[in-house]
Amino acid sequence: MDVPLAIACRKINKRYPHFSLSDVDLSVEEGTVMGLVGPNGAGKSTILRMVMGLIGPDSGSVTVLGHRMPDEQMAAKRDIGFVAEDMRLYESQSIAFHMDFVKSIFDSWDDTYAANLLRGFDLKKEQKVKGLSHGQRVKATLLLALARRPKLLVFDEPTTGLDPAVRKEVIDEMMNALESESHSILFSSHNTLDVEQISDYITFIYGGRIIESCNKEDFMDGWRRIRLSNPDGKPLPMLKNIKEMQQHGRLCSLTVDQYDEGVAEHLRQSGLKVDAVERLTLEEIFLSNVHHAKANLSKEAGL
């Protein structure tokens, strides 16, 4: 049975003078959180701009909440809440002004929820935007997005530049939103700690290409770093799932993305001593994927 999708990007391409998005496929199931991870300049913001209908692909299709983007963006945006670190608010106006403004546009605005968020974020309605700290601005924009109860939330690097306490508040409220409502969330970040904490699925993007998109738990469960001793200096056996290899004299470490006990046993039978098998954090996996993607792009370019 087909799973309902909040977002469906199919073979989308977008070319700029110094950057190209190439054959991107991205699916976000209803009621789930997709973490979009990549370094700056990887293409994350370009994808989010297409999801929001701000730009269209050169080829391929983008469907959001059943609406074709960008042609049907007005209908889709009634059910999308968007938060970015650089959201622009009216500097001379108060938080109350912005709350009333959003309420006048969206019938789904929830006064009770808005008041709860205001208290939870320790914000005052009469505060002027120009007097808000960076963290308070992010919390205010999150309040404006959440209080109208959208079906889809799109976050573009929302925790960048936040101190640890404010970052935790923002992440906690994002998680509360998902638990209390049937929200779908597309969450873009280069902070893998945030993505690891909140996401159900992860998509790695590098150089305008998707290099991995899958269930977070299943994906992370397969990655291991294997630390080896090679006292006799024997050649290392070939393993098809090696992502990285480092050798220092008689010591070696292998990073693999599809580990099972058979891998360790194969290494032992090859005369190697398995000293340790370690799980990897999402950040370590991300860095390994980037390293692997760089190597592949260099090969394609003939470098």
Provide a descriptive summary of the structure in words.
The structure is a single chain. The protein is of the alpha/beta class and 303 residues long. The chain has two domains: 5-218, P-loop containing nucleotide triphosphate hydrolases (Rossmann fold), CATH 3.40.50.300; 221-300, Alpha-Beta Plaits. Helix content is 35%, strand content 30%. It is built from ten helices and 14 strands. The strands form three sheets. The protein has a six-stranded mixed β-sheet with strand order 6-7-8-3-9-10, sandwiched between helices. Strands 2-1-4-5 form a four-stranded antiparallel β-sheet. α4 runs antiparallel to α5 (134-146) and α5 packs parallel to α6 (164-180).
CATH H-level homologous superfamily name of the largest domain: P-loop containing nucleotide triphosphate hydrolases
Mind summarizing the main beta sheet? Answer: 6 strands, mixed
Based on CA atoms alone, the radius of gyration comes out at 22 Å
State the helix count: 10
Mean pLDDT across every amino acid position = 91
In percent terms, what proportion of residues is strand?
25-35%
The N- to C-terminal Cα distance equals 45 Å
How many structural domains are formed by the residues?
2
What CATH architecture of the largest domain would you give?
Answer: 3-Layer(aba) Sandwich
Number of strands: 14
